[in-house]
Design goal:
Elements: H1 13-26, H2 31-39, H3 46-61, H4 67-80, H5 86-95, H6 100-110, H7 116-126, H8 135-147, H9 152-161, H10 166-183
Helix pairs in contact: 1-3, 2-3, 4-5, 4-6, 5-6, 7-9, 8-9, 9-10
Length: 184
């Protein structure tokens, strides 16, 4: 069994910058994600925070770090490759620390002219989902589409075209209404 993790040695500004560039070379990251990773490598207090901010500014100036570009690329990839709905991409970007205004503008541009129902059908094809044979299967398909970020209206329209029973559709709509009330 391992012992407690030893705190990493604080880095000077140039070393911190090099470390940040290495992290960005491994994968794209948002400002918030990078700050979280770098915070462990600076001394506590104002001195460490100032060092961190100078490195972030330097990375932004050199265009290694750009939340707007990150959000645009992320939304496009999730829409085209994963066929995720707008809500799922929005939640993912929020979790990654992208600012709300940037998310709104990005999603408006990325999902402009894209039919949500068409995208949901593409998602179902990609996952090789067939017409549900029972209410239980219909509920499973509905949950999967909700996790993928599609609205209840779109899910119900797709299931209606598959001639899913009215009881299953009512249960899905009721669950969505209850979920919205709990969020408020």
């Amino acid at each position: 069994m391992r012992g407690p993790r030893k705190a990493p040695v604080p880095l000077d500004e140039d070393s911190l910058y090099s470390y940040a560039v290495r992290l960005l070379g491994q994968q794209m990251r948002t400002v918030a994600e990078l700050k979280r990773l770098l915070r462990r490598r600076v001394p506590p207090g104002d001195e460490g925070q100032d060092r961190l901010e100078r490195v972030i500014v330097r990375l932004k100036e050199q265009r290694y770090l750009d939340d707007t570009g990150y959000a645009h690329d992320y939304a496009k990839l999730r829409q085209e490759n994963s066929s995720f709905g707008r809500r799922r991409v929005q939640q993912d970007l929020m979790r990654k620390g992208v600012h709300g205004e940037v998310i709104a503008k990005t999603l408006d541009a990325a999902y402009e002219g894209v039919g949500e129902e068409e995208l949901a059908r593409r998602h179902l094809e990609r996952k090789r989902i067939r017409k549900p044979a029972s209410e239980k299967e219909a509920a499973r398909v509905a949950r999967m589409l909700m996790r993928a970020g599609f609205s209840t209206g779109t899910i119900v329209r797709i299931l209606k075209k598959w001639d899913v029973g009215d009881d299953a559709l009512l249960a899905i709509e009721t669950a969505d209404t209850e979920e919205r009330e709990n969020e408020s």
